[in-house]
Amino acid sequence: KQLKRLFSSTYYKNLELYKPILADPMPPMAMRNPTFVSLLPLVTGGLATAFLPALDMFTAYLPFITKYTCLYASFHSTFQAGIHWGFAASLHDPELHNQDSKYINMQFIYPAAVPLVTWTLNAYIWLLPFSLPRALNSIAAIGLTHIGVLVGDHFYVSRGTAPLFFKKYKILVGVVSTVSILLLAFGAYMYPEKTLKKDN
Question: Which of UniProt's keywords are assigned here (predicted)?
Answer without folding.
Answer: Membrane, Transmembrane, Transmembrane helix
